Amino acid sequence: MSTHTDLVDRYLAVWNEPDAERRATAVAALFTTDASYTDPLAAIRGHEEIVATVTGVRDAFPEHEFRRHGDVDGHHDVVRFGWALVPAEGGEAVVIGFDVAVHDSDGRIRAVHGFLDKVPATT
What Gene3D superfamilies does the entry give (predicted)? Predict the structure, then answer.
């Protein structure tokens, strides 16, 4: 497994962690203190805001999990990857996205730039 694939798997594990305390610990281990996360719905910085965003998504989509969607590609300190939010018991993805992450020399994420390719319809 490549370093970039390992980083993506650790990143997705943060989003899938059901225990709030373990989730906060995982964020602190994976992200730099001043890490940023930006997608069409959020522009945040720091561990506290990252934890709050992940928790909000988990609360909005209970019984769902994030999985890699396609190949992981990276070079130097940049990695790009697709992901899908799917029902834990299986079924069609409710959200599909694509992220680009920048990491430091220690393998900690400094920034994530996210894009949403499929989102649930709102009425």
Answer: 3.10.450.50
- Is residue 96 in a domain? yes
pLDDT in tens, 40-92: 999 999 999 999 999 999 999 999 999 999 999 999 999 999 999 999 999 99
Is 106 among the domain residues? yes
% of the chain at pLDDT higher than 90: 95
Three-class secondary structure of residue 16 per DSSP? helix
The pTM of this model reads: 0.94
Query: Which tokens in the block code for residue 17?
Result: 């962690």
Task: Return the exposure string of 22-58: e unless at least 16 CB atoms fall within 10 Å of the residue's CB, then b.
Answer: ebbebbeebbbeebbbebeeeebebbebbbebbeebb
Residue 81 corresponds to which amino acid? F
- State the total domains in the chain: 1
CB 101 within 8 A of CB 78: yes
Range of 84's domain? 3-118
